[in-house]
């Protein structure tokens, strides 16, 4: 536990015990620094953390006070409004912007607020690399047949067991191991649609899903998506009634970039609609393990009765970015996906599969995940608090309940691409909103920030700098 976290917990305990009552002013930052013999920066971070928990509020020129509504932790942070995109299908071309943004992440060690990848430092690379080394020594020559679809039997068994531990029974014979979730999504899309077909997606949506549609010569249609409830099922129904939809691509849990978890009632309504129309749905579940609550989220796959859900996931977001091991549960399209896997890339590297299987068998995967989840949940609170304080008036912020990205709506006069360029000049990357839509101006005043990295002075100052730059753009 970091020093500011311990201080925040001590102060929270004092508030809960009534030492500080609702409405009372806390000691100033300087006083608290002297009392607890910590730096002013440590106290400020502790106060920001308490503010993000809804226990205290900041009053300009007055200081910090115990909240009168401690349970309303979001009262001081304006929430996002639902999007209302125009339901027009369109060919997709966002890949150039995305590639440019991803390249900028590594330029001169820029602060990676725009990165789509989790900070790798909490991941058990040493153990995984040791298992990979042992696997390589255990068999001198690995043949192609060892890596053929559907994948390594040990890993497939461990994946099936993981689903069972989370309350969903799956048939191991349905699983097809892939090169990350990206390949799984591409294979599943190939299995259910052809060039020229229309695919329904959330708005905003993760650009990797748009890339898959673009690569295969298909068209995307964006569906209004609520920042907390997910895709608008009624709006999707109206679109399906008005034009042919070959398939849907949905991220119902901890959607990138919004971070919501679709309520179970909405998931059931969505599956009822798609089942009635016999429309397949590709479910992107790469963030499912990164929940902030007490229980693993339900999946569309668990509600599927006709084999229409092609569920895709990977270990890249929860265990290792480097090994690129994912999988698909393609339902009735399983044989087609396995065939496409063989035709597209032939194999998935064997040693990474064995290393991950070994880790799942021998080490505490759940213990590792609990630590990562706590870290991300705390980082989300800190990032939201800093953004709410230092970004211009009129800014609205998502409320993620899992994952590691924050979606921010800036005042309408702020151009996200211009902000992206100004931030890059300061050695900071951000994700401009234009990457998350097929239409150039749909999210021109939105940005996505990554909060997976450990909170440091550099990260904090980078977020503050982005807020100040946004304020300058707002003022013209």
UniProtKB/TrEMBL annotation:
<dbReference type="Pfam" id="PF00155">
    <property type="entry name" value="Aminotran_1_2"/>
</dbReference>
<feature type="domain" description="HTH gntR-type">
    <location>
        <begin position="1"/>
        <end position="69"/>
    </location>
</feature>
<keyword id="KW-0808">Transferase</keyword>
<dbReference type="GO" id="GO:0003700">
    <property type="term" value="F:DNA-binding transcription factor activity"/>
</dbReference>
<dbReference type="GO" id="GO:0003677">
    <property type="term" value="F:DNA binding"/>
</dbReference>
<protein>
    <submittedName>
        <fullName>PLP-dependent aminotransferase family protein</fullName>
    </submittedName>
</protein>
<dbReference type="Pfam" id="PF00392">
    <property type="entry name" value="GntR"/>
</dbReference>
<dbReference type="InterPro" id="IPR004839">
    <property type="entry name" value="Aminotransferase_I/II_large"/>
</dbReference>
<dbReference type="InterPro" id="IPR015422">
    <property type="entry name" value="PyrdxlP-dep_Trfase_small"/>
</dbReference>
<keyword id="KW-0663">Pyridoxal phosphate</keyword>
<dbReference type="GO" id="GO:0008483">
    <property type="term" value="F:transaminase activity"/>
</dbReference>
<keyword id="KW-0238">DNA-binding</keyword>
<dbReference type="InterPro" id="IPR015424">
    <property type="entry name" value="PyrdxlP-dep_Trfase"/>
</dbReference>
<dbReference type="InterPro" id="IPR036390">
    <property type="entry name" value="WH_DNA-bd_sf"/>
</dbReference>
<dbReference type="InterPro" id="IPR000524">
    <property type="entry name" value="Tscrpt_reg_HTH_GntR"/>
</dbReference>
<dbReference type="GO" id="GO:0030170">
    <property type="term" value="F:pyridoxal phosphate binding"/>
</dbReference>
<comment type="similarity">
    <text>In the C-terminal section; belongs to the class-I pyridoxal-phosphate-dependent aminotransferase family.</text>
</comment>
<keyword id="KW-0805">Transcription regulation</keyword>
<dbReference type="InterPro" id="IPR015421">
    <property type="entry name" value="PyrdxlP-dep_Trfase_major"/>
</dbReference>
<dbReference type="InterPro" id="IPR036388">
    <property type="entry name" value="WH-like_DNA-bd_sf"/>
</dbReference>
<keyword id="KW-0032">Aminotransferase</keyword>
<dbReference type="InterPro" id="IPR051446">
    <property type="entry name" value="HTH_trans_reg/aminotransferase"/>
</dbReference>
<keyword id="KW-0804">Transcription</keyword>
């Amino acid at each position: 536990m970091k020093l500011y976290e311990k201080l925040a917990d001590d102060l929270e305990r004092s508030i809960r015990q009534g030492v500080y009552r609702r409405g009372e002013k806390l000691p100033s930052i300087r006083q608290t620094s002297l009392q607890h013999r910590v730096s002013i920066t440590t106290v400020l971070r502790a106060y920001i953390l308490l503010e993000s928990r809804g226990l205290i509020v900041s009053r300009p020129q007055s200081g910090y006070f115990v909240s009168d509504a401690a349970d309303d932790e979001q009262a001081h942070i304006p929430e996002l409004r639902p999007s209302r995109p125009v339901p027009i299908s369109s060919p997709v071309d966002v890949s150039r912007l995305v590639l440019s943004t991803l390249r900028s992440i590594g330029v001169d060690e820029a602060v990676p607020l725009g990165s789509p990848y989790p900070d790798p430092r909490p991941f058990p690379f040493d153990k995984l690399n040791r298992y990979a080394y042992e696997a390589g020594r255990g068999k001198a020559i690995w043949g192609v047949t060892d890596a053929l679809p559907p994948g390594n039997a040990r890993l497939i068994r461990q994946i099936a067991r993981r689903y069972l531990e989370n309350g969903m029974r799956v048939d191991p014979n349905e699983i097809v191991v892939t090169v990350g979730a990206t390949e799984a999504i591409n294979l599943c899309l190939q299995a259910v649609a052809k060039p020229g077909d229309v695919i329904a997606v959330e708005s905003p949506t993760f650009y990797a899903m748009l890339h898959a549609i673009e690569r295969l010569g298909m068209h995307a249609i964006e569906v209004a998506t609520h920042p907390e409830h997910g895709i608008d099922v009624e709006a999707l129904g109206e679109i399906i009634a008005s034009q042919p939809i070959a398939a849907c691509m949905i991220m119902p849990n901890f959607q990138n970039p919004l971070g919501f978890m679709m309520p179970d009632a909405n998931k059931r309504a969505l599956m009822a609609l798609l089942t009635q129309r016999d429309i397949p749905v590709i479910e992107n579940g790469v963030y499912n393990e990164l929940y902030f609550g007490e229980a693993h989220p339900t999946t569309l796959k668990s509600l599927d009765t006709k084999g229409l859900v092609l569920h895709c996931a990977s270990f890249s977001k929860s265990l290792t970015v480097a090994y690129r091991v994912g999988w698909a549960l393609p339902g009735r399209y399983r044989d087609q996906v396995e065939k496409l896997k063989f035709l597209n890339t032939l194999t998935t590297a064997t040693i990474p599969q064995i290393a991950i299987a070994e880790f799942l068998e021998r080490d505490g995967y759940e213990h590792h995940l609990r630590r990562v989840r706590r870290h991300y949940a705390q980082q989300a609170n800190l990032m939201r608090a800093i953004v709410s304080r230092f970004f211009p008036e009129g800014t609205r912020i998502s409320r993620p309940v899992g994952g590691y990205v924050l979606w921010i709506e800036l005042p309408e006069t702020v151009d996200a691409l211009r902000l992206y360029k100004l931030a890059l000049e300061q050695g900071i990357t951000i994700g401009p909103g234009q990457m998350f839509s097929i239409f150039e101006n749909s999210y021109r005043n939105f940005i996505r920030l990554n909060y997976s990295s450990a909170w440091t002075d550099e990260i904090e100052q980078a977020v503050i700098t982005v807020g100040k730059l946004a304020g300058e753009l707002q003022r013209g």
